[in-house]
Design brief:
Layout: E1 2-7, H1 10-20, E2 27-32, H2 35-38, E3 42-43, H3 51-60, E4 65-68, H4 72-75, H5 78-83, E5 92-94, H6 102-105, H7 107-116, E6 124-128, H8 132-140, E7 146-150, E8 159-162, H9 165-176, E9 187-192, E10 197-205, E11 210-212, E12 217-218, E13 221-223, E14 227-230, E15 235-238, H10 245-265, E16 272-281, E17 284-291, H11 299-302, H12 310-318, E18 333-341, E19 364-368, E20 371-374, E21 377-380, E22 384-392, H13 395-406, E23 414-415, H14 422-429
The protein binds adenosine monophosphate and glycine.
Residues 122, 147, 156, 159, 191, 193-194, 198, 220, 277, 288-289 line the site of adenosine monophosphate.
């Protein structure tokens, strides 16, 4: 098969890495890709939002399967755009259409969907500029902290956790009146705060059948001990100890099954990933959010644990043939540590030369994110730069592998968290 992966992050390098292992992968392209994908596939200089160029490339190169990494092109209707063209009638696509992508593209839509289908989630109400006074009244009646969510895509920055009512009053005005997040905050979901431990569950579905992939935990804050601003993700671990079988069974029954049947009841065709952000509240699962793609950096620990042909799973999904699909996992733990440019998630330098990429370390994989090749050097080109995945029989040893390789890499102003997985190690000691 000829395959095109869209995106340029660590997630897309992990997709390319997994797909490339399949016997059925003939020619693999990544658009636009990074220096890591360039070493195992052919990078194509097309942006993920350039639908017209993507369509022409698919025709020219006889692409059989398109895998969409990030959410934005899905929310903007890439599948619908391609499906409208007769020349792509045989193209297989992993990624939902515009309506299904609203599960991530609109928090108001996804909360409505969960409420309608009885999927456990935090109580919430959506407000607009016109209902600002009601929003303030609702805030007054909620205990703190209070969660405010911009309705639309806001690059992971649209969720505010307000510690006081004062703070929530100020923030809701900024979001609705001053459109702090542009069009994304024309509507704001205000919801109750859930106290528990977070976990991500990944589902691959053809709209009728599904497989649940290995679960993962990610580390969203920039600072150690989960301090400072949110980022795209600073590290991840899979499996997650506290997600024992009993809990995962509840997730399947109370969340995954009603989600898939809800899509069917609402006549929303869905082919692709559903990444469910969950809170484990005293053993009960609550949905924090849906994403319509894989997680980044979660993919960098989930795919290394799949001991089956990932391309085969993707093709079965796109062909609506997931019935009876099965995959094996390795029993080992995978951990990834994200190395970022100093200053991220604020402003940071680009173009720093990365040293140490030639060093190897057994049972580790370096997934590139914001990197590019400039002559014979690899330089930084984004906030999140490298993901260092380690694989070992237990969490502590996997972390040992990740950090051993991290310590062989450097560039000016590099930063990474030193405490990835430490909370889980402490929990397991209790
Ligand atoms: P999201 O962008 O929806 O993933 O939200 C970002 C982060 O905010 C989540 O990963 C949670 O840590 C936190 N969060 C979102 N909603 C809630 C909630 N209702 N209660 C507690 N924490 C939340
Ligand atoms: N790591 C969180 C995400 O991909 O949204």
């Amino acid at each position: 098969m000829n395959i095109l992966v869209l995106g340029s992050g660590g997630r897309e390098h992990a997709f390319a890495w997994a797909i490339n292992k399949s016997e059925n992968c003939q020619k693999l392209y990544v658009a636009p890709g990074n220096a890591g994908t360039a070493s195992i596939a052919e990078n194509v200089n097309i942006g993920v939002s350039e639908f017209d160029k993507i369509s022409r490339f698919i025709t020219e190169k006889h692409i059989d399967l398109l895998v969409v990494g990030p959410e934005a092109p899905l929310v903007d209707g890439l599948r619908d755009y391609l499906e409208d063209k007769p020349e792509h009638s045989k193209l297989l696509i992993v990624g939902p259409g515009k309506v299904g992508a609203q599960l991530e593209g609109s928090k108001d839509f996804s909360k409505g969907f969960m409420q309608k289908h009885g999927i456990p989630t935090a109580a919430s109400i959506t407000f607009t500029k016109e209902t600002l006074e009601e929003a303030k009244k609702y805030i007054s009646g909620l205990p703190t902290p209070i969660v405010l969510k911009a309705d639309g895509l806001a690059a992971g920055k649209g969720v505010l956790i307000c510690e006081s009512h004062e703070d929530a009053f100020k923030s809701i005005s900024k979001m609705l009146e001053d459109e702090q997040f542009g069009a994304a905050s024309k509507k704001v979901v205000i919801e109750e705060f859930l106290k528990g431990i977070e976990l991500s569950v990944f589902v691959l579905t053809d709209g009728k059948d599904y497989v649940i992939l290995p679960e993962a935990k990610d580390y969203k804050r920039i600072g150690e001990n989960d301090s400072g601003p949110n980022t795209g993700g600073m590290g991840a671990v899979s499996p997650v100890d506290f997600a024992h079988k009993g809990f995962l069974d509840r997730v399947e029954k109370e969340v995954v099954q009603p989600t898939i049947s809800g899509l069917q009841k609402d006549n929303i065709p869905y082919i692709g990933f559903i990444f469910i952000g969950l809170m484990n509240v005293d053993g009960a699962p609550y949905v924090i959010e849906y994403n319509v793609r894989m997680g980044d950096p979660e993919t960098q620990v989930v795919f290394p644990r799949i001991n089956s042909d990932v391309l085969d799973l993707l093709v079965k999904t796109a062909q609506k043939d997931l019935n009876n699909a099965h995959y094996d996992t390795i029993s080992e733990t995978a951990t990834t540590v994200v190395m970022v440019s100093g200053g991220y998630p604020g402003s940071y330098d680009k173009g720093q030369r990365i040293y140490g990429l030639e060093n190897n370390e057994p049972d580790t994989v370096v997934f590139h994110a914001g990197t590019k090749k400039v002559e014979s050097d690899v330089v930084t080109s984004g906030g999140r730069v490298l993901n260092i995945t380690g694989i070992a029989p237990d969490l502590a040893s996997a972390l040992g592998k990740s950090y051993k390789r991290v310590n062989l890499l450097c560039w000016e102003d590099v930063y990474f968290r030193r405490d990835i997985g430490q909370d889980l190690l402490a929990l397991s000691r209790k």
